[in-house]
Amino acid sequence: MQLIDGKAIAAQIKKEIAEEVTIIKANGGKTPHLVAVLVGHDGGSETYVSNKVRTCEEVGFKSTLIRYESDVTEEEILACVEKLNKDADVDGFIVQLPLPKHISEEKVIEAIDYRKDVDGFHPINVGRMSIGLPCFVSATPAGIVELLKRYNIPTQGKNCVVLGRSNIVGKPIAGLMMQKGYPGDATVTVCHSRTPNIKEICLEADIIIAAMGVPEFLKGDMVKEGVTVIDVGTTRVPSTETKSGFKLKGDVAFDEVVAKAGFITPVPGGVGPMTIISLMRNTLLAGKKEIYK
After folding, report:
1. Which has the closest alpha carbon to 137: 284, 278, 292?
2. 228 DSSP β-pair partners
3. Which of 38, 159, 192, 254 is in Cβ range 3.0-4.6 Å of 165 for a Cys bridge?
4. In a domain, 218, yes or no
């Protein structure tokens, strides 16, 4: 069994990005600029955005955080998006999800200029990804693909089961695993809450990507020997063992599955660190105008 160390790979990529930014600056190029728009005070969003801001500093990006209270109107957020779309100094920006219920996430995502959509959520980026054209790939699926590449995990002709069909992880990673070339060329099955025989399907899988948001859903008796398991789940569950009073649990019953796995990601320290670093990579591409001129 080999543990897939997302923290170590993210640190490696962070170093690569920082070195490239140093060269860009030395040659008189523009410093990549990422803006994050944060609405309200959701604990998870606060942590995630502060990590993004810190990582921007570490790789040499310029970063801006725009904050709004949760009673902000949809019109104000859309006006902010329009302003960022037109700001030539801003290379990429994200509007942190989830948004308060009175604001349409769909409207906000569609209002973002797809050339600055470093989250990869805009329908144009999603559509281009689905047919294999250059685009911004959403951060978590991009991070998963990078882990598979860096650990040289074979994907061609393999049975890949994706647990979950969200627009942010399940659907895009299924599409990426089907693409021609490496890491792709897999035979992909997508399972979800309405799939009746998930255990039987998982037992046939060479690669399982668990992104259902159900703590410890994937048990030891649901996987075969030598399987590669990528755990995307991060659910806070109450715990008396930690100072914070909660513990992060993945979608995989790690202690059961690890005994059979060939490769496996831990939670935390697996896919999580790759999500932020993939966002940084998208921002670098946006700054260099490599995808959209």
Report:
1. 278
2. 207, 263
3. 192
4. yes
Q: What is the arithmetic mean of pLDDT over 92-116?
A: 96
Query: CATH number for the domain including 264?
Result: 3.40.50.720
Task: Give 11-48 pLDDT, tens digit per residue.
Answer: 999 999 999 999 999 999 999 999 999 999 887 788 88
Mean pLDDT of 178-198: 96
pLDDT of residue 239: 75
Triad 78, 279, 63: Cα angle to 5° = 65
User: Which amino acid is residue 225, in one-letter code?
Assistant: E
CATH of the domain at 84: 3.40.50.10860
Catalytic annotation, pick one of 14, 91, 96, 171: 96
Cα 159 from Cα 139, distance rounded (Å): 23
> For 228, phi and psi rounded to 5 degrees?
-95, 125
What is the total residue count of the chain?
Answer: 293
To the query of whether residue 52 is one of the catalytic residues in this protein, the response is yes
β-strand 207-210 against 159-163: which pairing, if any?
parallel
Q: What percentage of the chain reaches a pLDDT higher than 70? A: 100
Q: What is the mean pLDDT of the chain?
A: 95
What domain range includes position 61? 30-113
In the residue annotation, 251 being an active-site residue is answered as: no
Question: Structure tokens of 176?
Answer: 């990426």
